[in-house]
Amino acid sequence: MISQEQLNALYDAEVVDQDGEKVGAMGQVYLDNKTGEPAWVTVRTGRFSGRKVFVPLSSAEIVDDQIRVPYPTAMIKDAPDIPCDRHLSEDEEQDLFEYYAVDDGPAPSA
């Protein structure tokens, strides 16, 4: 699991997909309410008018100062449209868990 300290050192890092292709820049980190560990990261999926989407960190890894996630870029770009400027609701969290096929866990927060 990626720690908060590692993410702090990678401020504005690139997020890359399972094949090492750039998805976008890392935005906010959302923490697990129970453990305080990083659970989700937002990613801007376009240069100028791209939207921000959530990507789980549960299976992510740091490779060459990038965050590699085990999903294809197309899947990440098609993630549920959830606002990234507030706490995730339980329903939004569940939508993300189902979309990425991640086991349920405590609700993350910004």
TrEMBL record:
Domain of life (superkingdom): Bacteria
Protein name: PRC-barrel domain protein
BP term (GO), one: photosynthesis, light reaction
TM annotation in the entry: none
SUPFAM superfamilies for the chain: PRC-barrel domain
InterPro entries registered for this protein in UniProt: Bac_photo_RC_H_C (IPR014747), PRC-brl_dom (IPR027275), PRC_barrel-like_sf (IPR011033)
Domain PRC-barrel, first and last residues per copy: 7-74
GO cellular component terms listed in the entry, alphabetical order: plasma membrane light-harvesting complex
Organism: Ornithinimicrobium humiphilum
